[in-house]
């Protein structure tokens, strides 16, 4: 049985149940995320995709405890961490890690790479020599030499910095990594390298990932399951191969048609063919959210078969 097919209560590292996040108060309150549910198992990547403002990063930040949930629940390894205290969050930081979008601002320019990596395992009880050995080990996993430890972030390219950010996330051998738009600032060659790196690391360690992106063309090569958001709500949720080959929601079809392909003539024909079908306003940026499709997989058992 694949991780995609397993029931949520059998192998879930993370379960998000009817998550809601709101900003503002009173009549100025605005729901940014509304009723989002999914689960992630060991060795599985769930991609959260959608256009800007869809609620992707807010969902990831709620999982990490960086924004408060207004409703719903977040279950990590069987424990409800929806409103976890700062102390509990700190105790879980080794098990729940993140890789953020900007590789230039995510590393402290005044600290060596060695200091940055070792900081994440200071509370683990490892001896200094063991911490350094662990840092050398994870650098090797991301394809960087050990002499990186003594250098500063300014000496590296964007792709190299993102590799260092991934190494930092791996230092504590986490159970879950939230990868938030980590490829959007990189060129295509570096994107391919990071995708291959993440896939190899997951196969080796079994770490679960929530991969947040606006680009379906990227996530289809990495994700086991894809969740599509629009206006903070789930439009479609299905195994990656099924969603990319036979999407059910009109908005998902629009995203797939907009995903770039290497041949501009083929890309143009794809867009024209889809527009010629005369579908209603499910296009990205339209004023109303498209009608939801039935969720195909990867929902908590009590939610199976419902629509968002």
Q: Can I get a quick summary?
A:
This protein has 308 residues and is an alpha/beta fold. The protein has helices spanning 8-11, 56-64, 86-92, 113-119, 128-141, 158-170, 188-205, 216-219, 240-245, 250-258, 264-276; strands spanning 12-23, 30-41, 45-49, 71-76, 79-80, 96-99, 176-180, 208-213, 225-230, 233-239. It is built from 11 helices and 10 strands.
CATH topology category name of the largest domain? Rossmann fold
Shape: globular
Strand order of the largest sheet: 6-7-8-3-9-10
State the total count of DSSP E strands.
Answer: 10
Contiguous uncertain segments of 5+ residues: 1-9, 279-308
How many discrete structural domains?
Answer: 2
Assembly level: single chain
Major beta sheet, specifics? 6 strands, mixed
Structural class, by secondary structure, is alpha/beta
Which series of helices and strands comes N to C? HEEEHEEHEHHHEHEHEEHHH
Structural Rg = 20 Å
Roughly how much helix do the residues carry, as a percent range? 25-40%
Strand content: 15-25%
State the CATH superfamily name of the largest domain.
Answer: P-loop containing nucleotide triphosphate hydrolases
- Tell me the CATH architecture of the largest domain: 3-Layer(aba) Sandwich
Number of helical regions = 11
Distance between the termini: 26 Å
CATH class of the largest domain: Alpha Beta
Compute the average pLDDT. Answer: 81
């Amino acid at each position: 049985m694949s991780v995609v097919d397993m029931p949520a209560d059998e192998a879930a590292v993370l379960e998000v149940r009817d998550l809601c996040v709101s900003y503002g108060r009173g009549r100025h309150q605005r729901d940014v995320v509304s009723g989002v549910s999914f689960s992630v198992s060991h060795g599985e990547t769930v991609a959260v995709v959608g256009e800007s403002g869809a609620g992707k990063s807010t969902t990831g930040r709620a999982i990490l405890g960086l924004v408060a949930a207004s409703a719903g629940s977040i279950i990590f390894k069987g424990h409800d961490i929806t409103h976890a205290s700062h102390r509990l969050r700190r105790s879980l930081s080794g098990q729940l890690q993140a890789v953020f979008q900007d590789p230039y601002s995510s590393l402290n320019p005044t600290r060596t790479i060695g200091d940055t990596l070792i900081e994440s395992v200071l509370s683990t009880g490892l001896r200094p020599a063991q911490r350094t050995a662990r840092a050398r080990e994870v650098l090797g996993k991301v394809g960087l030499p050990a002499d990186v430890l003594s250098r500063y972030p300014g000496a590296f390219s964007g792709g190299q910095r993102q590799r260092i950010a991934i190494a930092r996330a791996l230092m504590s051998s986490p159970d879950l990594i939230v990868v938030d738009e980590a490829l959007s600032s990189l060129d295509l060659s570096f994107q391919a390298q990071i995708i291959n790196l993440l896939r190899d690391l997951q196969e080796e360690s079994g770490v679960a990932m929530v991969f947040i992106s606006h680009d379906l063309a990227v996530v289809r090569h990495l994700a086991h399951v894809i969740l599509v958001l629009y206006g903070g709500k789930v439009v479609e949720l299905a195994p990656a191969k099924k969603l990319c080959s036979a999407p059910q929601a009109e908005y998902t079809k629009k995203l797939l048609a907009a995903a770039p392909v290497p041949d501009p003539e083929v890309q143009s024909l794809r867009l024209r063919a889809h527009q010629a079908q005369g579908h209603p306003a499910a296009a990205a940026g339209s004023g109303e959210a498209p009608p939801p499709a039935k969720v195909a997989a990867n929902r908590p058992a009590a939610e199976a078969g419902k629509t968002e």
